[in-house]
Structure prediction request, 152 residues.
Amino acid sequence: MITQVRTDMGIAFTFLKADPNPGAPTQVMPTQLGGQTLTRGVYKTASNVLLTTGPLHLDAQGDPNSVFIFVIGGTLTIGAPSGAIILDNQAQAKNVYFVTSGLTIIEAGQIVHGNIFATSQVNVLAGANITGRLWAQSDQVTLIGDTVTKAP
Prediction:
């Protein structure tokens, strides 16, 4: 079973990194997502990314089928003082994907909507509230008293 899960994750990583959202433009992702409002699309960077200076608003502009894909060449850190991911105008957590080539860290008490696919590990500190899924391809997902709810 573990072998099948790793195979399926590899397929998901390849699919998400290949711009599977042809209806939306690929854009260069800022290395600080805090305080941004972004619309559907594929966002890419080869760098580490922070979400620490305010919430990231994902605006579906009234389309509940809007897809947001973030392809990060390094580490993703979501955290203090404010790193929430907020869904606006019918955006749905099941349509939000973060793909990281490195470690993903979600600091204590953060609110995250979306699915995280990390090449190495996902470390979630105490009290985070996640709506979505957490996947680590080559290592582990660590939770400490967190709430994880599968996105409907």
